[in-house]
């Protein structure tokens, strides 16, 4: 485990330990619109502070909350809390997302953590994605499923016509509300679909974990699947609705 990956793990473990004590009432307070365009909560800012403490020595940090922080040739892109609305509602599907881009502009490391259950996904340059748990030094090849029955459709609530079209096509889905986590689980579900504005904070780390899968990235939608025919079927549905 290299120093950067270990620092990411250490940050996640510090945040997870804080969560074990219960959510501080101050974390629910809303502050101002962050760099990513959403209103930041004190929870987001708490997690951002922890990541800055652990990662600032490695390079410049670009956070969804505060934008550019620190300096350095290496860029570290973070979403301090992926699915913060879930977290503040105590719905167990929320985590963190970290991606590192080296001096040549190549994304060479990514860490996504599900703080709700401790699932941890790591990707280092030229190495396969590994999966493990927080507070454990045991990592293994990521889990996969050859009999996936559902996909994950992020921001489904904003696209009722697409929801109806997927249902008509027999493409079941859930809409859990944390895109980096959903991409981290892309090997175990039938597909992952996101329709909306592409923001680097949401996708940098998650897409790095999707190696070996079929991936389409457009300005206003992202589709990932193990099955090329499923990918093409969904793309045709999305394109048809855009043309109407």
Automatic annotation (TrEMBL):
Keywords: Magnesium, Metal-binding. SUPFAM superfamilies: Carbohydrate phosphatase. Gene3D superfamilies: Fructose-1,6-Bisphosphatase, subunit A, domain 1. It comes from the Bacteria. The keyword Metal-binding applies. InterPro entries: Inositol_monophosphatase-like. Mg(2+) binds at residues 64, 79, 81-82, 202. One of its GO terms (molecular function) is metal ion binding. The keyword Magnesium applies. Its cofactor is Mg(2+). This is Inositol monophosphatase. It comes from Sulfurovum riftiae.
């Amino acid at each position: 485990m290299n120093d950067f990956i270990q620092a990411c793990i250490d940050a996640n473990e510090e945040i997870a330990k804080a969560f074990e004590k219960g959510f501080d009432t101050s974390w629910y307070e809303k502050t101002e619109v962050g760099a990513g365009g959403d209103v930041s909560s004190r929870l987001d800012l708490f997690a951002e502070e922890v990541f800055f403490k652990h990662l600032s020595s490695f390079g410049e940090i670009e956070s969804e909350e505060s934008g550019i922080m620190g300096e350095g040739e290496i860029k570290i892109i973070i979403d301090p809390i992926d699915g913060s609305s879930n977290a503040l509602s105590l719905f167990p599907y929320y985590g963190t997302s970290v991606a590192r881009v080296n001096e040549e502009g190549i994304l060479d490391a990514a860490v996504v953590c599900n703080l709700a259950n401790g699932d941890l996904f790591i990707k280092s340059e030229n190495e396969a994605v590994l999966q493990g748990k927080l507070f454990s030094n045991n990592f293994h090849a990521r889990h996969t499923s050859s009999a996936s029955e559902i996909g994950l459709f992020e921001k489904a609530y904003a696209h009722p016509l697409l929801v109806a079209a997927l249902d008509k096509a027999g493409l079941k889905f859930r809409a859990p509300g944390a895109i980096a986590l959903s991409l981290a689980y892309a090997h175990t579900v039938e597909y992952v679909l996101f329709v909306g504005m592409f923001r680097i904070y949401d996708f940098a780390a998650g897409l790095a974990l999707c190696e070996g899968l079929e991936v389409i990235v457009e300005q206003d939608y992202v589709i990932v699947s193990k099955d090329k025919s499923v990918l093409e079927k969904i793309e045709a549905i999305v394109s048809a609705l855009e043309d109407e």
